[in-house]
Amino acid sequence: MLLSDVVFTRVSFDYEYIIDESGIFSLHIPASVALSPTPSIIDYEEEIKFWAGVGFNIYPTGQGKLKYFLGPELRYSMVDYTAYDTQRYEYQDAFGNPMYIYEEKEQPIKDMSNMYFLVNNGLIYTPISRFAVSAVLGLGLQSRLIDKDKLGYEDNFLPAVTFSARLGYKF
Prior knowledge:
single chain, 171 residues, mainly beta, 7-stranded antiparallel β-sheet, 7 strands, elongated
């Protein structure tokens, strides 16, 4: 369970399989489902519905009580997005001076998809054999998978930052 799940009302699962005998390489499969609309930390115009990914972690120091890892992750998410379209209207006042009125319209887009490429860095502390506490920071790129005619503009690649604090039980 992610600690952020308590704040953002969602349920998350993490599966990790150590690939080699030395404990340096692992396959990582995370997923999260929102129980109620969950605003994105970075983009308040997005409400995350769910996300899932697959990653590969490298533990340079191997396994132990305190472990550092890094590795790439591909992540897919489904969000509801609100785009804002601003219209500018010009008119003249009684003295002939130009005046402007700005009107902002919301344009909700349901079920928009995002793809992420992240490089995760994290620490895992295992004080007892089956319990773990971890913190993970992911940096990378986000690609919005949407028809640019729906959004009104095109911003295919954006910087992406993710952070999670986790409490876990190892099976």
